[in-house]
């Protein structure tokens, strides 16, 4: 079996970091530490497309994905969100990437294990929770984040949250935008395991090694069959993503982005004046 060509991954997806902590085991690291590993435009693209490469790479049996340092990912960075609001071409491109990120990860034939520490929000959370086995720190901070920003929960949540934790809990956390700990996420079934911070990586790595040592066809076929549950929810996900990106053309998102930046409550609704002097939606 050939060794994993890490340089090829680094050349194709330069915004991400890659390691090989075991035979036939690829580690993907989301790294933007000064900004809680927030996804830049280039990183958003790479997170969408890397799973196709993994799927076709016979040197890879299993993937572990984590954030650099103390956090998983704070989602899309402010600069990307601003460009989506202001530039139609950027909005359309990121919409396609957001869809590809979800479907490429769902359709990737190799098992994926996520190691979630610190903050996990937005697009980063999509990667964390769409992994086949999600291992979280007990005190991790898990937050969808969309409704506070002023757009519909679209990245991944409508696809998988109701299946993992039930419709009642999905409604509660997605509509109220309340954060939850890794311990609570395990309790309601949103993640597979919650462990102490110091044990997250080694636990996830142990699971990944176990999967890599198993029958490749058994792993891939089982994953494919299980993910048919997600494919059945594809139309609901497509609708949620379209509604999310519609929201980036409305006034509420401007107020929401300003509120997130200034750590204040957003002022939205039909009687609120927008930041550009217009009336809110």
Textual characterization of the structure:
The structure is a single chain. This protein has 281 residues and is an alpha/beta fold. The chain has a single domain (6-249), classed as 2-enoyl-CoA Hydratase, Chain A, domain 1 (Alpha-Beta Complex). The chain contains 14 helices and 9 strands. The protein has a 6-stranded mixed beta sheet, with helices on both faces. A 3-stranded mixed beta sheet has the order 5-7-8. The radius of gyration is 18 Å and the shape is globular. Residues 270-281 have low confidence and may be disordered.
The biggest sheet amounts to: 6 strands, mixed
* Secondary-structure-derived class: alpha/beta
Query: What's the level 1 CATH class?
Result: Alpha Beta
Measured between the Cα atoms of the first and last residue, the distance is 57 Å
Shape type: globular
- According to CATH, the homologous superfamily is 2-enoyl-CoA Hydratase, Chain A, domain 1
Tell me which CATH architecture applies here.
Answer: Alpha-Beta Complex
Q: In summary, what is this structure?
A:
The protein is α/β, with parallel strands linked by helices.
